[in-house]
Each structure stands twice: as C-alpha cells, then as structure tokens.
C-alpha cells in the first residue's frame, strides 16, 4: 500500500494554489524579467540556456528587476505576488522552487495569507490584514525549498514575498480543502470531489501519476491527467481509497477512462465504508477503454469513504460519486467552515 496522507508528510496533500484547481496569480509589484503567472503552472519547470528575449534570459518562472535603495544604492525592500487559492482551505506546507535561478534567486522569502471570501478585488486584497504563514526564511538557488506551516485556519489567498528581489520558478501551497457548505444547500453533489472536501487517502500503486488526479475538477486533459498504476505482474488487483467530502448517500457513480486506450482496467467495482461497516456499491463490472461510464446505484445507505477496485490494473481518469450529505454531515461541515 502507498500511504498518500501520512500525518507527518504534508507534501502528499493537494496543491491548493494549482491552476488546475482554479488558482490564479492576481497581482505582483514587479515582473520585469519573467511573468508572475508562471508561479502556479502545473507542469515541471523547463529551461533552455542561452535563450534570450528582449528582457534577457527567458525563464519559466517569476523574476523581478534588481532593487535599488534610493539612498544607498544597495538592495532593499521586497517584491511580492498575490495568489488566489483555487480551493480555500488550511495550509500545511509551502514549496518555493527556485529551479534554474542560480545567480538571481532571492536569498530569503516569506509567505502571508488572508481570508476574503466571495470575489474580492485587488484593492480589497491590498487593504486587508495579512497573517504570516512562513516568516522571513532563508532560500537556496536552483532548489526545492520546503517550509512546514503549523496553522489550522482557513485561507483564501496567499502572498509570496521575495527579500529583496530575484526569481522563483514555482509556488506550491499544500493543504486540505475547506469548502463553503452554503453552496451545497440540499443539492446533490460530487461526494468524491477534491473541491468539495474529499481526499485520496491511499492507493495500492501510484507508479505513473498522483492518484489525486482522479478526483480533480474538469475533464481529463491527457493520459497523464488521472490515476494510473504500473503493470501488475502478480495475482490480485489494484485499488484507490477516497474519503468522501462528508457522510452521505451515493446514488450515481461515474468511472471515466477517457484517454486510457490500451491501459484501462478490464473491470471495476466500488466498495463503500461507513465506519467499520462495509457494503457493495457497484459489483465487478466490465469497463471500456477511453469511455466515461455512468452507473445509477440502487443505494440508500450512507458512507464515509469508498474504495475503487480495478481489475487487474490500469488507470482511471476521473471518479465521480454523486449523492447527498446527511444532515449531520452538512452541519459538521458548516461548523468547520465557521471555526477554521
């Protein structure tokens, strides 16, 4: 088993600032050499030496000018960028990746956060009170700089600060979604959606891709956008565990193998868990490659988690489990939202 949510490893939690979750870089005080939007690109940093544009070497990242203190001529002050989290939530760790920034990286960084629900404008964000998540801390060039965050409050935006200037390739904000339950009302919802508070808690194999992809929003973009295992060479099957957004009754399941043409599972089954009780949601069922499958379930039992079993191996682009939260689960979600 691959443990994807060990309590002491916040790196396994989703990146709440990811562009694929709806994150956005809203503003920066300076982006003279390289654009701020690069900070939350989902793919690895790319670099080709000696590729010069009108602003110098082309970097896959955010790079500011050299700061100069008006009185002394030396570096002073700080540069900043404001990022809206794609999914608001609690932040457990920050990654500041300075890949390929060697003589132009910031020697120190800090990260602040704020909570402004709704759709605040830039003026609102500039005028609000920001709270430190990562104090002014040392950073290394061409490195993945990691900072644990001992904070349990809910945030909607973060501000990345460079002291005093330089370049950063990527920012990752790892944490746990805390959605606003007011949007759920009494409507059916995807109980397995990351944006609704669900989480992948374990997988038998995660060789080709992070299983979190299976519960990401939107349509799968490619074969790499989802969960895919290695080829199984021994008896048995692979599985994926999902903690639901809350205790609820699952009535419709979608198992999407889009883009998986020669590596889709032959069959799949769904097993639900409600505390220590387990029951079948979907019996072992044949799947087709490159196909979104929808199954109406004759189920009226609530569950807190679901295991997707695939036979014998392969991939799943998306898993959707539509249903309703129980009254108690919705009340607990409201309590967490109000107190976070």
UniProtKB/TrEMBL annotation:
Pathway: Nitrogen metabolism; (S)-allantoin degradation; (S)-ureidoglycolate from allantoate (aminidohydrolase route): step 1/1
Single Gene Ontology MF annotation: allantoicase activity
EC top class, as a word: hydrolase
Keywords noted in UniProt: Hydrolase, Purine metabolism
Catalytic reaction(s) noted: allantoate + H2O = (S)-ureidoglycolate + urea
Signal peptide: none
Pfam families listed in its UniProt record: Allantoicase
Protein EC: 3.5.3.4
GO process annotations (BP): allantoin catabolic process; purine nucleobase metabolic process
Record-annotated Allantoicase domain positions: 22-177, 197-325
Keyword match Hydrolase: yes
Record-stated family: Belongs to the allantoicase family.
Annotated protein name in UniProt: Probable allantoicase
Gene: alc
């Amino acid at each position: 088993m691959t443990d994807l949510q060990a309590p002491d490893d916040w790196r396994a939690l989703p990146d709440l600032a990811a562009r694929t979750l709806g994150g956005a870089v809203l503003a920066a005080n300076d982006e003279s050499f390289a654009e701020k939007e690069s900070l939350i690109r989902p793919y690895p940093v790319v670099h080709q030496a000696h590729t010069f544009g009108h602003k110098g070497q082309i970097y896959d990242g955010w790079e500011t000018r050299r700061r100069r203190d008006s009185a002394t001529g030396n570096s002073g002050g700080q540069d900043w960028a404001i990022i809206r989290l794609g999914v608001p939530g609690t932040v457990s760790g920050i990654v500041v990746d300075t890949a390929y920034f060697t003589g132009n990286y910031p020697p120190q960084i800090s990260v602040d956060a704020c909570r402004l629900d709704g759709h605040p404008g830039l003026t609102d964000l500039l005028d609000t009170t920001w709270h430190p998540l990562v104090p002014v801390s040392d950073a290394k060039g061409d490195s993945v700089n990691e900072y644990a965050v001992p904070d349990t409050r809910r945030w909607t935006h973060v501000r990345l600060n460079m002291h005093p200037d330089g370049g950063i390739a990527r920012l990752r904000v790892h944490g746990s979604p805390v959605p606003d339950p007011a949007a759920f009302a009494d409507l059916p919802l995807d109980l397995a959606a990351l944006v609704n508070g669900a989480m992948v808690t374990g997988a038998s194999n995660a060789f080709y891709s992070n299983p979190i992809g299976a519960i990401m929003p939107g349509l799968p973009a490619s074969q790499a956008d989802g969960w895919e295992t290695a080829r199984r060479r021994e008896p048995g099957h692979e599985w994926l565990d999902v903690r639901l957004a809350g205790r609820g009754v699952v009535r419709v399941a979608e198992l999407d193998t889009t883009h998986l043409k020669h590596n889709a599972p032959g069959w799949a089954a769904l097993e639900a868990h409600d505390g220590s009780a387990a029951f079948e949601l979907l019996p072992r069922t044949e799947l087709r490659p490159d196909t979104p499958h929808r199954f109406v379930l004759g189920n009226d039992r609530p569950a807190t988690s679901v295991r997707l079993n695939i036979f014998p191996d392969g991939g799943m682009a998306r898993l959707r489990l539509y249903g309703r939260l129980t009254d108690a689960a919705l009340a607990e979600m409201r309590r967490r939202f109000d107190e976070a």
